[in-house]
């Protein structure tokens, strides 16, 4: 990231959601909420299975920012829970590594590195 890019970043607190609010955001395709849903779910939501499931769903979203946050959230789940469903999540990461969007690809690289470190997952070069 260039020095000037750092000046453009705006950090905001991650909003809190109930399960119903997260499900409604998905059903309503509320992009403003969907950007935060995977982050909240992966970092704070108690139902860890639901957190992974919603990230899996949002990793295929049409909006690149939503996809990127879902991919990043797999890294949080890996770090916090020490587990991810390899058969489902690894192919999602591999697909994201080839995403048309540079931001998604960058998040996929970070998550790939994390899963290699935490789980010793191997990826094709």
What count of domains describes the coordinates?
1
Number of helices: 8
Structural class: mainly alpha
Low-confidence stretches: none
Largest beta-sheet details = none
Radius of gyration: 14 Å
Tell how many strands the DSSP assignment holds: 0
Please state the overall shape, judged from the principal axes of the Cα atoms. globular
Helix percentage: 55-70%
What proportion strand?
Answer: under 5%
| SSE topology string | HHHHHHHH
Distance between the termini: 24 Å
**What integer is the average pLDDT?**
94
Structure, described:
This protein has 125 residues and is mainly α. It has one domain. 68% of the residues lie in helices and 0% in strands. The chain is built from eight helices and no strands. It has helices at residues 3-8, 19-28, 31-34, 37-43, 48-58, 64-81, 86-96, 102-119. Helix 5 runs antiparallel to helix 6 (64-81). It is globular, with a radius of gyration of 14 Å.
């Amino acid at each position: 990231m260039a020095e000037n890019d750092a000046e453009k970043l705006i950090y905001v607190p991650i909003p809190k959601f109930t399960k119903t609010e997260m499900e409604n955001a998905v059903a309503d395709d509320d992009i403003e909420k969907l950007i935060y849903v995977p982050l909240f779910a992966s970092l704070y939501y108690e139902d860890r299975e639901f957190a992974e499931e919603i990230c899996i769903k949002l990793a295929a979203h049409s909006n690149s920012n939503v996809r990127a946050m879902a991919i990043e959230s797999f890294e949080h789940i890996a770090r916090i829970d020490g587990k991810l469903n390899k058969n489902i999540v690894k192919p999602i990461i591999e697909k994201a590594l080839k995403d048309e969007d540079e931001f998604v690809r960058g998040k996929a690289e970070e998550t790939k590195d994390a899963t290699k470190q935490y789980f010793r997952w191997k990826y094709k070069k």
